[in-house]
Amino acid sequence: MMKSRLDGVRAEDRQVLEALALGGRETDLDVLLDVLDKDEEDVLDSLDRLLKAGIIRERRSAEVVLYSVTHTKFGDVVYRDLVPERRANLHRRMAAALELQYAQNPAALEIVGEHYRKAGDAGRAYRYLVAAAKRLADRSLIQEAWDLTEKAGTLEDSAFADLSADDFRSFRLDNLMVRANVHYNRAEWVDAEKTYRAALALAEESGDPRSACETRLQLATVLRRRGLHKDSRLFAEQALEASRRLHYREGVGDALHCMAALAWAEGNLDECERMANEGLLVAQGQHLADRRAELLLALTAAQATRGHLASATKGLTEAEGIFRELRMKRPRCLALANIAELLTWQGEPLQARQRAHVAVQLASELDYKLGRTAATRAMAVAALDLGLYDEAKMGLHEALDLAKEINLPEEILACLVGLAQLALEHHDLSGACVHAAAGLEVAVKRDPERYLPLLRSHLANALAHTDPQDALTLATAAQNAIPELPIPRRTQVQLALAYASLSLGKFETASAMGRHVLQTAGSRGFRLLSLQARALMTHLTEGQEQATHRSVGQELA
Length: 557
Hints:
Largest sheet: 3 strands, antiparallel
Radius of gyration: 31 Å
CATH architecture of the domain at 1-82: Orthogonal Bundle
């Protein structure tokens, strides 16, 4: 039926139809005229006849007139019947026309590149497909960007012959950076490192010092994620030195952020704050707002670890606002997860759960595995504090599986701590033993957030009735570590030790620890710990003191 309808189309009308069949999408009249290079009146007459025949349709948008075939099968038949030379020539003319008409429209990059690819012009196709992939990556359309880099990769050998050496290196560097970014997003650390190293070699070969700086910093970040801190520091220091030599402020800010994050991962809070504050002095002005927000993430991590929750919350809120305004979804996801953790500490688990939920949605949209792990854990911890035990258990196990999949010891450790606490609250002592013991194995290797004494306290609590001697040894080791801990973790350990002491029958020790927690939590704004300590003290006191703890606890709740 369709074939017979097309057989009745005039030769001059078929030429118009062939141009419309090229891309399977609407084509505006100006582009169509450029492709056909025929008299405008003749083209309009052909369009009228095709419209009357019901083979094409017309749509007007403002001052633009758009045409397309009415059924994809019409286009398929016409496209298949084109001889290869005619097809390639039409694609080349369509690419050139789109290039002319939509030079300032980033959305047209992929379409132009695809037409050049089908025209056999590998050099131009490679250029446009890489530019489109880069644009999609900037918009956080990760899978779409990856697909275009794959398509561009099939053209590299031909593009190398078509393009100048400098142009080819520049476009290939962009393609590698997009691919490395996708690997990082998926937590494919080894592939990300390999691709960034290839990009660095290309940047150095091209004599492009800024690109080399940026690539070194990306490498430093990946190596930090892999736990290779010495190599990470080397690349970050090289980038910092080169950026200062080039008077490249963006690079200086990025390098200082990278070094601050590395210091935090190593538990060096003083160095983390020093580097972040130095970076904030550099990251002044609207054009460096994204660097300021990244540096605030590092600074607030140190502040939160020290227990300066108000300062950390203020900084994180500013950073999240910047990321939201700039549509930087990946760092915004981490900022929201961090805010959720702070809100939990401050006794606002409902708000924490809401923020973490937004972070989970962002991470899922981006296929951002690191962000999804952190956000899922933060949401589960908030659910635990809300008494939503099934949700908490499911979320913590999901986060633990994700953390193991992407090999993130810090997140594995945090999930195991949460699962041990959940098991204790459910009086599942064997489960608490399993999770706490697994956490201890991780913590002795890598423990930037100082979870080890907390895990020992939880394990002591779980073993108190079945193996009191081991429980006492664990509790003593945890207590000996208290003076060296940052205030939030110290307070958390003291509360866990109070519960362990209660299980061991050491009521005076439990009471003393509980009072320490109340004193610190009250002055620092740790509402959740304060509430938990009040609940504990109602079991350790009598009379008026017990009534006071119960009354204040009810107010906090």
